[in-house]
Specification:
CATH architecture of the largest domain: Sandwich
Shape: elongated
Number of domains: 2
Helix content: 10-25%
Radius of gyration: 35 Å
CATH topology of the largest domain: Immunoglobulin-like
Oligomer: single chain
Number of strands: 6
Distance between the termini: 102 Å
CATH class of the largest domain: Mainly Beta
Protein backbone atom coordinates (compact mmCIF):
# COMPACT_ATOMS: atom_id res chain seq x y z
CA UNK A 1 0.00 0.00 0.00
CA UNK A 2 1.38 3.33 -0.95
CA UNK A 3 0.92 6.18 1.41
CA UNK A 4 2.12 9.70 1.25
CA UNK A 5 4.13 11.27 3.92
CA UNK A 6 2.38 13.34 6.49
CA UNK A 7 2.19 16.96 5.57
CA UNK A 8 3.13 19.48 8.20
CA UNK A 9 0.14 21.39 9.59
CA UNK A 10 -0.39 24.90 8.41
CA UNK A 11 0.62 27.48 10.89
CA UNK A 12 -2.10 28.56 13.33
CA UNK A 13 -3.74 31.91 12.56
CA UNK A 14 -2.45 34.87 14.43
CA UNK A 15 -4.74 35.38 17.42
CA UNK A 16 -6.90 38.47 17.00
CA UNK A 17 -8.71 40.29 19.68
CA UNK A 18 -12.18 41.72 19.38
CA UNK A 19 -10.72 45.20 19.48
CA UNK A 20 -8.56 44.39 16.44
CA UNK A 21 -11.48 42.90 14.59
CA UNK A 22 -14.28 45.36 15.43
CA UNK A 23 -12.47 48.42 16.66
CA UNK A 24 -12.03 49.75 20.16
CA UNK A 25 -14.78 50.63 22.59
CA UNK A 26 -16.81 53.64 21.67
CA UNK A 27 -16.62 56.62 23.91
CA UNK A 28 -19.58 57.42 26.13
CA UNK A 29 -21.65 60.50 25.35
CA UNK A 30 -20.28 63.63 26.84
CA UNK A 31 -22.37 65.32 29.55
CA UNK A 32 -23.30 68.06 27.09
CA UNK A 33 -24.48 65.53 24.47
CA UNK A 34 -26.50 63.65 27.11
CA UNK A 35 -28.14 66.90 28.23
CA UNK A 36 -29.05 67.84 24.63
CA UNK A 37 -30.45 64.36 23.99
CA UNK A 38 -32.53 64.53 27.18
CA UNK A 39 -33.90 67.98 26.33
CA UNK A 40 -34.80 66.83 22.80
CA UNK A 41 -36.59 63.74 24.15
CA UNK A 42 -38.48 65.85 26.71
CA UNK A 43 -39.53 68.38 24.04
CA UNK A 44 -40.70 65.55 21.78
CA UNK A 45 -42.75 64.03 24.61
CA UNK A 46 -44.36 67.36 25.48
CA UNK A 47 -45.18 67.99 21.81
CA UNK A 48 -46.72 64.53 21.48
CA UNK A 49 -48.87 65.03 24.59
CA UNK A 50 -50.03 68.44 23.30
CA UNK A 51 -51.00 66.88 19.97
CA UNK A 52 -52.96 64.10 21.71
CA UNK A 53 -54.69 66.62 23.96
CA UNK A 54 -55.68 68.83 21.04
CA UNK A 55 -56.99 65.93 18.96
CA UNK A 56 -59.17 64.66 21.83
CA UNK A 57 -60.64 68.11 22.35
CA UNK A 58 -62.05 68.48 18.85
CA UNK A 59 -65.75 67.99 18.27
CA UNK A 60 -66.73 65.01 16.20
CA UNK A 61 -69.78 64.18 14.14
CA UNK A 62 -70.85 60.63 13.35
CA UNK A 63 -73.75 59.34 11.30
CA UNK A 64 -75.57 56.08 10.77
CA UNK A 65 -77.76 55.07 7.83
CA UNK A 66 -81.14 53.80 9.01
CA UNK A 67 -83.05 53.18 5.80
CA UNK A 68 -84.33 54.52 2.51
CA UNK A 69 -87.42 54.35 0.38
CA UNK A 70 -88.08 55.20 -3.24
CA UNK A 71 -91.40 56.90 -3.81
CA UNK A 72 -91.02 57.04 -7.62
CA UNK A 73 -88.38 57.62 -10.31
CA UNK A 74 -87.98 61.26 -9.26
CA UNK A 75 -87.72 61.07 -5.48
CA UNK A 76 -86.09 59.07 -2.68
CA UNK A 77 -86.27 59.37 1.11
CA UNK A 78 -83.20 58.65 3.23
CA UNK A 79 -83.46 58.08 6.98
CA UNK A 80 -80.36 58.50 9.15
CA UNK A 81 -79.09 59.42 12.61
CA UNK A 82 -76.52 62.08 13.48
CA UNK A 83 -74.53 62.09 16.74
CA UNK A 84 -72.92 65.40 17.73
CA UNK A 85 -72.72 67.86 20.59
CA UNK A 86 -76.23 69.26 21.25
CA UNK A 87 -75.27 72.90 20.67
CA UNK A 88 -73.46 72.26 17.39
CA UNK A 89 -74.93 72.77 13.92
CA UNK A 90 -73.71 70.40 11.20
CA UNK A 91 -74.17 69.74 7.50
CA UNK A 92 -74.74 66.29 6.01
CA UNK A 93 -74.54 65.24 2.37
CA UNK A 94 -76.88 62.43 1.34
CA UNK A 95 -77.01 60.65 -1.98
CA UNK A 96 -79.37 58.35 -3.85
CA UNK A 97 -77.83 55.58 -5.97
CA UNK A 98 -79.10 53.53 -8.89
CA UNK A 99 -78.56 49.80 -9.47
CA UNK A 100 -75.05 50.44 -10.88
CA UNK A 101 -74.10 52.55 -7.80
CA UNK A 102 -74.16 55.75 -9.85
CA UNK A 103 -75.30 58.86 -7.98
CA UNK A 104 -78.76 59.85 -9.25
CA UNK A 105 -79.57 62.37 -6.50
CA UNK A 106 -77.60 64.51 -4.04
CA UNK A 107 -78.54 66.93 -1.30
CA UNK A 108 -76.76 68.78 1.53
CA UNK A 109 -78.85 69.22 4.68
CA UNK A 110 -78.36 71.77 7.44
CA UNK A 111 -78.91 70.19 10.85
CA UNK A 112 -79.22 72.78 13.58
CA UNK A 113 -78.36 72.62 17.27
CA UNK A 114 -80.57 70.49 19.55
CA UNK A 115 -81.80 71.23 23.04
CA UNK A 116 -79.94 69.12 25.60
CA UNK A 117 -83.19 67.48 26.71
CA UNK A 118 -84.29 66.55 23.16
CA UNK A 119 -83.28 62.87 23.37
CA UNK A 120 -82.45 60.22 25.94
CA UNK A 121 -78.69 60.72 25.44
CA UNK A 122 -78.76 64.43 26.23
CA UNK A 123 -79.60 65.69 22.75
CA UNK A 124 -76.56 64.15 21.10
CA UNK A 125 -78.23 61.69 18.68
CA UNK A 126 -81.12 62.79 16.48
CA UNK A 127 -82.99 61.12 13.62
CA UNK A 128 -83.49 62.83 10.27
CA UNK A 129 -85.22 62.18 6.95
CA UNK A 130 -83.96 63.69 3.71
CA UNK A 131 -86.16 63.91 0.65
CA UNK A 132 -83.89 63.84 -2.41
CA UNK A 133 -84.93 64.54 -6.00
CA UNK A 134 -83.51 61.93 -8.39
CA UNK A 135 -82.92 61.88 -12.14
CA UNK A 136 -83.81 58.19 -12.43
CA UNK A 137 -85.06 55.36 -10.23
CA UNK A 138 -82.89 54.91 -7.15
CA UNK A 139 -82.37 51.59 -5.38
CA UNK A 140 -80.38 52.89 -2.43
CA UNK A 141 -79.85 56.00 -0.35
CA UNK A 142 -76.96 56.73 2.03
CA UNK A 143 -75.27 59.51 3.95
CA UNK A 144 -72.05 60.43 2.18
CA UNK A 145 -70.56 62.57 4.97
CA UNK A 146 -71.34 64.96 7.84
CA UNK A 147 -69.16 67.85 9.01
CA UNK A 148 -69.13 70.92 11.22
CA UNK A 149 -69.16 74.06 9.04
CA UNK A 150 -66.19 76.40 9.48
CA UNK A 151 -68.43 79.17 10.82
CA UNK A 152 -69.31 76.98 13.85
CA UNK A 153 -65.76 76.08 14.80
Amino acid sequence: MVTSEDQPATSAPVPTTLANRYGGQKRALSPKARRITGIAALATGIGFMAWISASLNTETVTFKDIGYSTTDATQAEIDFQVTKEPGTAVKCAVKALDSKFAVVGWKVLDIGPNPADATADGGRTTAHRAVVRTESLSVSGVVDSCWIPEANK
